[in-house]
Amino acid sequence: MASSSSEEGNHKNASSLIDELQFDMDDDQPMVETSGAEKSLSLKTSAEQSDTADEIWRNIENNRVRFPTNCDDRREGLKRTTTLKSPPGAEGEVVVSTTDDSSKQSTPTSPTGTDGGGRDGESSDKEKAGRGSLENKSILKPSPSVGTSLLNLVNEGTGAKASGTENGSPSMMDEAWERLRSSFVYFQKKPVGTLAAVDPSAEALNYNQVFVRDFVPTALAYLMKVPDPEPEIVKNFLLKTLHLQGWKKTIDNFTLGEGVMPASFKVMYDSYQEKDVLKADFGGSAIGRVAPVDSGFWWIILLRSYTKCTGDYTLAEKPEVQKGMKLILNLCLSDGFDTFPTLLCADGCSMIDRRMGIYGYPIEIQALFFFALRCAQQMLKQDTDSNRLIGRIERRITALSYHIRNYYWLDFTQLNNIYRYKTEEYSHTAVNKFNVIPESIPDWVFDFMPLRGGYFIGNVSPARMDFRWFLIGNCIAILSSLATLAQATAIMDLVEERWEDLIGEMPLKIAYPALEGYQWRIVTGCDPKNIRWSYHNGGSWPVLLWLLTAACIKAGRPQIAKRAIELVEQRLSKDGWPEYYDGKKGRYIGKQARKYQTWSISGYLVAKLMIENPSNLAMISLEEDKKIEKPRLTRSASWSCSR
Prior knowledge:
alpha+beta; four-stranded mixed sheet; three-stranded antiparallel sheet; 23 strands
């Protein structure tokens, strides 16, 4: 009797233990790591649990089930799949899978078919008891457009459509559309853009303006919107910013180039004229008084996206639009003292609009420059004047692609080559073209660089290589086909290999690693907003999700994007759609982050719409130009024997 009683007690303890194995993200409990065959642990109903109690206890005694002592253990590629079997007579099963930082519940299978957001009828009491509280502990809401696997996308056309609500509350997508609509800015009763943020708890500052780069994901969202796209706001925005380009731009008695596009604009009411007027900022009100180099490039790229989506070529063919494109291109293609095809820029001229050591030839600007050149190449009308410009564009594209692909690319092999560079080479046969001192390679690069993977480094100029990772430049390089197929694959490999560093708990790092200590003081000038792992200095920006998603689809790795989307869905809406997150893992809402940031909202929408319909990628992607796939240039092309 004592032995029987002891076994019964062990069985009860095993049942309790099984309940404790459930991972609760809300309470941040440690995940259970299993090994070998125990990677999949079946939790059965109370009637069946006694059959497995002895086996579970044996596994524990043999150290085959381990309880981590801290939550970071779950970050090491940990995966647990729990199958909840229904009682005899009930059909289907529920699968709850947890991979790394995400926990997601899939749909109960049913012969009648169900959607990703609902349940197939009433569950029996026994079935509910068998599921226990685990069903309620899955933190990820069902995501109808993504599903439990991207493989489900191929069946969307035949399956039942998912519901947009769960338990009567609006879905995250519905909320995003609603908030995006509420940020519209109107001029003469027409929508012309969206506010940067609508945060009633913070001072507006310049967040009550329409930023050119900020509006791009919003524009793409409305071009991709189903079932009815809304391209009108995109057309209005393109024409209104084109109108602002024609203004005279003077800062401290200095006149800017005619082709400069505004960084932002806002609508104001002029009581004297008794009408709305526009006020544009061309950099004169910016933190560092720097003109936005990227605005013109984004404008050309968005014009091509609008044309691709609507099939409306009349807008791009308008004389004023053609003139606007030419002004931007002439500004960038003008002759100077440059010996490189890359574009020389000041610090703070792009999304990173504060001092962060990107002066020179930053990869973000070079990739956008390349992308804009290729888009303009498609949209310029054929005439005598345009043909000369197109010829200059083609030559620049060829030279720029060669330069970036060869001198900005870094993988394990190239890092080893740079490490062994000789210096002071004075000859056309020099291998170390920029006289980079190997001792200047930062220590972190050697640990960061995996054997599999690579990326375009941040900057290359005489005696200087900025080895930091910048997400925008690398993703744009993939979308514009500046990166070769092999390089695009290697970039995706790097993201997977260094997931914890580049993605963390909230996607995505704008730059990696953060500047700290003495380096932070010298490079940023002790910028209190760009402290380590915050804002532009290693902060995590949800808006970048759309760029990563597009790049992943283009590179044939959509599962990476799906995993990042799931991470965003865990917190972004709950946290109030913040501008950025702080911390090495992106765990904390940014110290000075605005809530209800418009491009955080639109970035999520565009990512979801592209995963839902990958054909949307065509709006923001270019295929490789075969003429520039194999550059005719050689390393000694600039050298001549003649004297």
